[in-house]
């Protein structure tokens, strides 16, 4: 009878944990393919990959990606046509034509179109790297169309978002506070196999409240590494020597690509959500330290990036490794008690 009660509470506990984890921090990806021009019927040649992170609050998403075949040298700040240089999630679930792609996707309580100012810049080869966070009022992302617009606002690329459940593509780092810091983060890095492209994002807790970075129009985070979240060259969190410096290959990328990567704001509780994509010149990020920096640039929290290959099913259920290990620990304890109870 005792054993039954213990088992029952264990099952309840498990279900509670799974329900909470199912508040979801899903990662979605889409492969962008060319859309033919409506007027010339010519294939746009636009291809790419995008990722979208669900922040877990039901209203916020982070999105980013890498798109090629665009017009060269476009500037987000001067690309002012309606939808010019836009990168948006659309409400439709097919890329077939503009009707099936739908319009910009957002739901109540969001009433103003959150996508109007979301734009990319392209380099001299027509390559664009972009990432941002948007409050869209929903996290119902599966199957939605991600649309890339040209300078004049026309639609030139489209792909459908599907949840990424491939644990060979998602590295995870649950970072813990360094020294006296209590800052924790649940961060994920999506890799694009065979490339040096990566998107890093996640949720951070216990930061300084009400930060607004200079990048988001505020005054904060302007110190070196201020509000940064970076992959470091080291593979151990013990101290700054074992953590190493920013992880990138200076022979491939000229400027440290991590310099402006991090969170751009925190709420009144010191919580942040971030997502940024970059090109590092490094293909193998597994085992490296991921570090969250404070507003003044000091190192606050560290964890090691790992493929969650040992907890595949847990990830499929939306449960993270730390919850799983806690549950396994509790489960073993209960089993021990049950064994005692049945043998005495
Ligand atoms: C898109 O395709 C559907 C189905 O063929 C059609 O009904 C609709 O009119 C098309 N929309 C546009 C804008 O061409
Ligand atoms: C950062 O911002 C603060 C507050 O606005 C200012 O006092 C400081 O000079 C700035 N530092 C740099 C390096 O821009």
From TrEMBL:
Q: What InterPro entries does the database record attribute to this sequence?
A: SOD-like_Cu/Zn_dom_sf (IPR036423)
Sorted alphabetically, the keyword list is: Signal
Query: Which BP terms does GO give this entry?
Result: superoxide metabolic process
- Transmembrane domains' residue ranges: none
Which GO-annotated molecular functions does the record name?
metal ion binding
Give the signal peptide as a residue range, or say none if absent. 1-19
Superkingdom of this protein's organism: Eukaryota
Is the Signal keyword given for this protein?
Answer: yes
Q: Does the keyword Transferase apply?
A: no
This one is known as: Superoxide dismutase
Organism of this sequence? Phaeodactylum tricornutum (strain CCAP 1055/1)
Ranked from the top, the taxonomy reads: Eukaryota, Sar, Stramenopiles, Ochrophyta, Bacillariophyta
């Amino acid at each position: 009878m005792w054993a039954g009660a213990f088992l029952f509470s264990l099952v309840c506990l498990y279900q509670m944990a799974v329900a909470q984890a199912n508040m979801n921090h899903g990662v979605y990806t889409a492969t962008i393919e060319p859309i033919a021009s409506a007027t010339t019927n010519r294939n746009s040649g636009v291809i790419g990959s995008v990722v979208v992170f669900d922040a877990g609050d039901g209203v916020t998403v982070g999105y980013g990606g890498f798109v090629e075949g665009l017009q060269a040298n476009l500037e987000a700040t001067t690309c002012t046509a309606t939808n010019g240089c836009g990168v948006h999630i659309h409400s439709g679930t097919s890329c077939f034509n503009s009707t099936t792609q739908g319009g910009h996707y957002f739901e109540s309580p969001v009433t103003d179109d959150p996508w109007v100012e979301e734009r990319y810049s392209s380099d001299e080869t027509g390559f664009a790297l972009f990432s941002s966070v948007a409050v869209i009022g929903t996290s119902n992302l599966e199957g939605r169309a991600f649309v890339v617009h040209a300078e004049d606002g026309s639609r030139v690329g489209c792909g459908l978002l599907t949840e990424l459940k491939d644990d060979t593509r998602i590295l995870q780092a649950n970072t813990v506070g360094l020294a006296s810091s209590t800052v924790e983060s649940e961060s994920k890095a999506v890799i694009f196999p065979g490339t040096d492209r990566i998107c890093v994002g996640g949720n951070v807790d216990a930061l300084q409240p009400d930060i607004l970075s200079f990048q988001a129009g505020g005054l904060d985070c302007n110190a070196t590494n201020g509000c940064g979240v970076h992959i470091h060259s080291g593979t151990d969190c013990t101290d700054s020597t074992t953590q190493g410096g920013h992880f990138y290959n200076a022979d491939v990328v000229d400027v440290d690509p991590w310099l402006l990567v991090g969170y751009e704001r925190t709420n009144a509780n010191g919580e942040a959500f971030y997502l940024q994509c970059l090109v590092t010149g490094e293909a193998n990020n597994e085992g490296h330290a991921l570090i969250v920096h404070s507003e003044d640039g000091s190192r606050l929290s560290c964890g090691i990036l790992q493929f969650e290959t040992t907890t595949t099913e847990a990830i499929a259920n939306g449960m993270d490794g730390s919850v799983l290990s806690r549950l396994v620990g509790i489960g073993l304890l209960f089993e021990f008690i049950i064994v005692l109870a049945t043998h005495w």
